Amino acid sequence: MTPQRRATCEARRLVALAELLRLKPRRTSELAERFGVSVRTVQRDLEALRDMGEGVEAVSRGRYRIPHVHHRLSAVEALAVHAAVRLLYHHSPTRSPAYRSALEKLSALLPEPAREAALRSAEALQGRPRDDRTLELVARAWFESRVLAFEYRSPGGSGRWRNKELEVYFVEVSRDNLAPYAIGFERTFHRAILTWKLSRMRHVRLLEDTYVVPPTFDPNRYLQNAWGVVGTSGGALETVRLRFAPEAAYRLEEGGYLDVTVEERCADGSLVVRLRVGTDSAGFPLEILPWVQSWGARVEVLEPEALRRRWLEEARQVAARHCDVR
């Protein structure tokens, strides 16, 4: 390891160490195991933090802390964000270490006994498979206005990995699959603002090239009528009409579906609703299909006809494959 690389690693360890000590008192042996260094190295790091004015205090023999500082989030705000981050962690195809560190920081803002329970739940996330730095690099690309280079394999394409260079304009989590996506201008081939799923990227790296986000870019306009993350980057908007059976109607009326408009309440208790959704480049409302299918037999697609045909065909395929129904 070069001296420069060693210095960078030490600096990052100091930052992470300070963050942990602000959460709760820690033993030097615990910190040594967490960072994979000796207890003596941790003791030197504690001295370095003191020299930096971090105010490291000895709580008891071998246990240290940095006094808690005021944060802007209220306890209820922290709880809301904490729940959202846990949801992202459990559903994201990749496991960024940033999720765990965010959960630990948010836990510190909760009152006891919630704080201790939340911290314990974050500790259980250590060592999950497929940790990677994609989210970190995408974030840095956005924050530092640096071009992001990666290889990408699109579903339904040739199946080959293609080199991409992206100017990141925004990061969005799809409400369809809860996966993070980067939105930005791809400059090598498409030369257009498109959406890119982080879990489909590999060999991600930052270039020295910088860029400026155009003032005309508005994430709200771009994602308008997106059911997941496909908004104005796809085809034209499409009106979808669905009929929900009585046993599902009450769940729909409970709320949580911002783009759904009730069109008719039928005498039998069923519900006809209308929504406007974005379509893919072929003009098909692909993102809405998995949500419709999740309701099983409790929903009927009324229009558009292309969606109705696709929905019925896939239902027939399921029945034919598993029930031998013709």
From TrEMBL:
Organism superkingdom: Bacteria
Signal sequence bounds: none
Residue ranges of domain WYL in the record: 134-205
Domain WCX, chain residue ranges per copy: 238-319
InterPro entries, sorted: CBASS_pafABC_assoc_protein, HTH_11, WCX_dom, WH-like_DNA-bd_sf, WH_DNA-bd_sf, WYL_dom
Domain Helix-turn-helix type per the UniProt entry, residue ranges: 13-61
Annotated protein name in UniProt: Helix-turn-helix type 11 domain protein
